[in-house]
Task: structure prediction
Amino acid sequence: MTRIGELAGTGDAAITALLDAAFGPARHGRTAYRIRLGMAWFTDLSFAAFDSDGQLIGTLQSWPVALHGPDGRETPLIMVGPVAVVPAMQRHGTGRALMDRLIETVDLHPGDPLVMIGDPEYYGRFWGFSADATGDWAVPGPVERHRLLTRAAPGVVLPSAGSLGPRGTALVAGAAATPAV
Ligand SMILES: CC(C)(COP(=O)(O)OP(=O)(O)OC[C@H]1O[C@@H](n2cnc3c(N)ncnc32)[C@H](O)[C@@H]1OP(=O)(O)O)[C@@H](O)C(=O)NCCC(=O)NCCS
Result:
């Protein structure tokens, strides 16, 4: 039986070991890490999955980021990820349970739109993420366009242009963001 709870209180070493197992140690160079560089994860929007022995088997973290518009305006976004399940336990519904908890939480008190880099076949199928808004967004590193996904409350229109990066920091045009590939 899998239990979903808060990630806060889980030690950094356990989280790191799980992420290394799911993604490999080279994960720090990934574009997603650069988008949220220097930010601290939201404790109320980050979750852990535990097995029946209380062992950590999955994590989901959410971070403050923003789309920095060409006019200097910042649109706050919540970056979701990594979502990770230990390899031996994948495809047993744990990732889905973690994401369900996040989506239940954000839908209860709709706030900033979500953004993530992930498989649209998974995040679109269950939670309605799509790449429709992000075609012209600049990101600080390579990304496959169809995997740069957002999910906003009904009626919210996201800007069509801007640079994704950490929240609350002035981006110098062209310095931190490069067009995605
Ligand atoms: C991606 C990941 C989080 C999914 O969690 P999981 O517990 O393994 O998957 P679930 O059991 O919740 O999957 C539910 C359904 O989605 C499907 N699915 C799972 N991962 C998928 C993917 N990447 N693409 C498409 N479908 C996927 C499953 O086959 C299953 O389908 P079914 O209900 O028709 O059988 C997990 O496999 C993982 O940690 N992968 C490595 C790290 C990673 O790539 N993370 C995502 C980027 S942040």
User: Anything to note?
Assistant: The CA atoms of residues 113 and 155 lie 11 Å apart. Residues 22-23, 81-85, 90-96, 118-119, 121-122 surround coenzyme A (CB under 6 Å). The chain is about 20% helix and 30% strand.
